């Protein structure tokens, strides 16, 4: 269980600290470079500014080859929260943007902007923020980000991300330990620029609002301790803590444990235990950015080693090739059998593959040792002495990690908490077999990171594929459903139309059938009335029909109907007259009978005469006159009895029957008289149809005469049948 804030403060007031496990005590060799002030180097002819110099993602390039740039001008733009821009370290021209050897143990080329200096060292326009306390925190954080500041103590984590935690902060720890041998850059920076470091601490306190500030410095730096105490004495919440010299006391987790006795969990961050840590070099850069508006374009680098004639600390521009620094400090390659240059200290540094490797934001030392100064790596078999486990400050098992890393058993290496290793090199330092343990760990970590990146890429690709397949399936299902609904709608429409069509067809057939039946019934009734009705009845019926129109003159519509009826009667009388004339010419009683029997079946063709209603001598089919007009004969005609007359009568009767059937069939097939046509008939002008009173009387007489003739003919036919 971690200590609470008050207990920690009480113990610090007593001058007591905690300790961390393991650790070693290598030779310091710091006096080689910490005796002289920080020197300023001349501007190199070419600068190689690596685009990515921090943990995270690289910024977006905003310059191009051939472009003139000023000192402090941004070369990249931050397009991501974990992207930090880089800036031109001096004025000049961009002569290349290409892959260049990197400041990394692998030496793999990385994207680099090459600047050819014009030696004018002309600054771009700067924007300081002196009244930062009156500005929103987001604006201050944006200024820190735009200045390209990242952690300068080792990992290079973006400072603006680290300075905006989502948890409360109990302690802000400023790391001034610098525990590794040979390195003195932070020592000289605290001695010469303690006030500016304090200003950077003030800005961080404004952002983080910590309860207390602890500034940790090893007891082998008395001048730096005194300078920082003087700079911080005005603020009681700033406490300078003197830490016993022990390697690696400057490690983040180790220093937190020494000052607060709080242990950062595996795969955790210091903020998880209420602590935020920054390096003194980072504080100096923050003060430069806020109070002077200067981006991070230079840093203090220790150039040391017995192969260097003038070891010292220098202000090195970011992007300066290490050859430029070594030349200024008079590097003597003759003191080495083969070139051996280390970026960093002897414990955690790495050999560079070229003297054109540029200085980056995390570069704190360039070490050029002689052959006698650094033991050569003569790796031998592990003797399982467990010295590495005793020296490990993270309480790991370096021997097990070594075996699994060497055998490429990466899963087992992770099971032994490989990523909790801080790569301090204490295990390799104490190894009697001179095994470069840290190098194996770094290779294993790199391989695991590559596998994880590949897995993430494959997972993303699989997710994209699955989402695409799901999207395509959903779209296909939507199309199928749309087509199904459309098909159902068409089926319903077709069924509805089919039912309507069937209903229409059935209705038409029913009408035709009813009409055919009605016509047949009318014809049958007319024949029966003609054959069976007595003469006086027919005469009375005729007289009644003649008198009937006279009673329907009450209105204009009735007068029109009466006129239509009279016209039809006149037409019937004319046809009967023609029949009588024909009978007289032939002078044959049997033929007269046949012709009279045919007359009821003859109808007027509606198609050929659209303005006339179908009618016969025996039947008149209209809306106003639905009954047959029959007039019984008053006299009995005398016809000679003969065998030929009987034969002719039978033949005529059969012919008449066939003709009547044909006429009925043709009448059904013919176009029915529509209501519109009847309306056309009814709308005929009354003036055209109404005749004079004399004409009407004459028409009535003719009709009566026709009825009488028809009755006589019938009687004659009956007599002829009886005689036969």
TrEMBL record:
Residue spans of biased composition, Basic and acidic residues class: 584-597
Main location: membrane
Record-listed [4Fe-4S] cluster 1 binding positions: 382, 385, 388, 431
Region Disordered, residue ranges: 584-640
Annotated membrane topology: Peripheral membrane protein
Domain 4Fe-4S ferredoxin-type per the UniProt entry, residue ranges: 373-402, 412-441
Location in or out of the cell: Cell inner membrane
EC number: 7.-.-.-
Binding site for [4Fe-4S] cluster 2: 392, 421, 424, 427
GO MF annotations in UniProt: 4 iron, 4 sulfur cluster binding; electron transfer activity; metal ion binding
GO biological process, one term: electron transport chain
Keyword Nucleotide-binding on entry: no
InterPro entries with a match to the protein in the record: 4Fe4S_Fe-S-bd, 4Fe4S_Fe_S_CS, Ion_transpt_RnfC/RsxC, Nuo51_FMN-bd, Nuo51_FMN-bd_sf, RnfC_N, Soluble_ligand-bd
Broad EC category: translocase
Family the UniProt entry places it in: Belongs to the 4Fe4S bacterial-type ferredoxin family. RnfC subfamily.
Function: Part of a membrane-bound complex that couples electron transfer with translocation of ions across the membrane.
Protein's recorded name: Ion-translocating oxidoreductase complex subunit C
Underlying gene: rnfC
């Amino acid at each position: 269980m971690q200590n609470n804030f008050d207990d920690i403060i009480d113990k610090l007031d007593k001058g007591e600290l905690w300790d961390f496990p393991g650790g070693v005590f290598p030779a310091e060799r710091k006096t080689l470079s910490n005796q002289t002030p920080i020197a300023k180097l001349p501007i190199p002819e070419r600068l190689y500014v690596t685009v990515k110099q921090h943990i995270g993602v690289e910024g977006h390039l905003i310059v191009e080859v051939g472009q003139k740039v000023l000192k402090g001008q941004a070369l990249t733009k931050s397009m991501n929260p974990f992207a930090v821009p880089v800036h031109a370290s001096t004025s000049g021209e961009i002569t290349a943007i290409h892959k260049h050897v990197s400041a990394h143990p692998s030496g793999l080329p990385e994207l680099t902007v090459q600047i050819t200096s014009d030696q004018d060292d002309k600054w771009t326009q700067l924007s300081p923020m002196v009244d930062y306390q009156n500005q929103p925190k987001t604006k201050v954080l944006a200024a820190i980000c735009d200045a390209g500041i990242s952690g300068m103590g080792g990992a290079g984590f973006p400072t603006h991300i680290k300075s905006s935690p989502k948890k409360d902060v109990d302690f802000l720890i400023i790391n001034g330990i610098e525990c590794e041998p040979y390195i003195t850059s932070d020592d000289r920076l605290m001695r010469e620029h303690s006030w500016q470091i304090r200003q950077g601490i003030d800005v961080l306190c404004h952002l983080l609002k910590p309860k207390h500030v602890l500034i940790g410095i090893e007891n082998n730096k008395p001048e730096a301790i005194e300078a920082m105490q003087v700079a911080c004495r005005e603020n009681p919440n700033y406490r300078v803590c003197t830490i016993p010299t022990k390697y690696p006391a400057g490690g983040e987790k180790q220093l937190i444990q020494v000052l607060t006795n709080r242990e950062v969990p595996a795969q955790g961050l210091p903020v998880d235990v209420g602590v935020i840590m920054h390096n003194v070099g980072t504080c100096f850069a923050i003060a430069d950015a806020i109070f002077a508006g200067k981006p991070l374009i230079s840093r203090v680098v220790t150039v040391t080693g017995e192969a260097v004639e003038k070891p010292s600390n220098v202000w090195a521009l970011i992007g300066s090739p290490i050859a430029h620094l070594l030349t200024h400090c008079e590097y003597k390659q003759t003191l080495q059998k083969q070139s051996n240059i280390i970026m960093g200290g002897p414990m955690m540094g790495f050999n560079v593959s070229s003297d054109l490797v540029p200085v980056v934001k995390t570069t704190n030392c360039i070490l050029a040792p002689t052959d006698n100064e650094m033991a050569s790596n003569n790796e031998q078999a592990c003797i399982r002495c467990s010295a590495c486990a005793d020296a490990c400050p993270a309480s790991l098992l370096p021997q097990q990690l070594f075996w699994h890393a060497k055998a490429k058993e990466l899963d087992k290496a992770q099971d032994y908490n490989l990523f909790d290793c801080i790569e301090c090199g204490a295990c390799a330092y104490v190894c009697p077999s001179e095994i470069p343990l840290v190098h194996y760990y770094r290779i294993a970590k790199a391989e695991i990171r590559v596998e994880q990146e590949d897995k993430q890429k494959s997972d993303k690709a699989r997710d994209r594929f699955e989402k695409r397949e799901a999207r395509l399936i959903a779209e296909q299902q939507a199309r199928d459903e749309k087509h199904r609904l459309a098909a159902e709608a068409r089926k319903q429409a077709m069924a509805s139309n089919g039912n309507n069509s069937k209903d229409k067809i059935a209705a038409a057939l029913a009408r035709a059938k009813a009409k055919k039946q009605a016509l047949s019934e009318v014809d049958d009734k007319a024949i029966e009335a003609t054959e069976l009705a007595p003469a006086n009845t027919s005469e009375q019926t005729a007289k009644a029909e003649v008198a009937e129109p006279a009673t329907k003159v009450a209105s204009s519509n009735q007068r029109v109907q009466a006129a239509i009826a009279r016209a039809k009667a006149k037409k019937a009388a004319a046809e009967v007259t023609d029949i009588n004339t024909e009978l007289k010419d032939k002078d044959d009683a049997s033929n007269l009978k046949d012709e009279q029997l045919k007359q009821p079946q003859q109808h007027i063709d509606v198609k050929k005469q659209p303005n006339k209603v179908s009618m016969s001598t025996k039947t008149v089919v209209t809306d106003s006159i639905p009954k047959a007009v029959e007039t019984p004969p008053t006299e009995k005609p005398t016809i000679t009895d003969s065998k030929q007359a009987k034969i002719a009568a039978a033949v005529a009767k059969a012919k008449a029957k066939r003709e009547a059937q044909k006429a009925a069939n043709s009448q059904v097939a013919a176009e029915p008289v529509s209501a519109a046509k009847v309306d056309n008939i009814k709308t005929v002008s009354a003036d055209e149809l109404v005749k004079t009173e004399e004409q009407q009387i004459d028409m009535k007489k003719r009709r009566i005469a026709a009825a009488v003739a028809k009755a006589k003919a019938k009687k004659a036919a009956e007599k002829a049948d009886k005689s036969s």
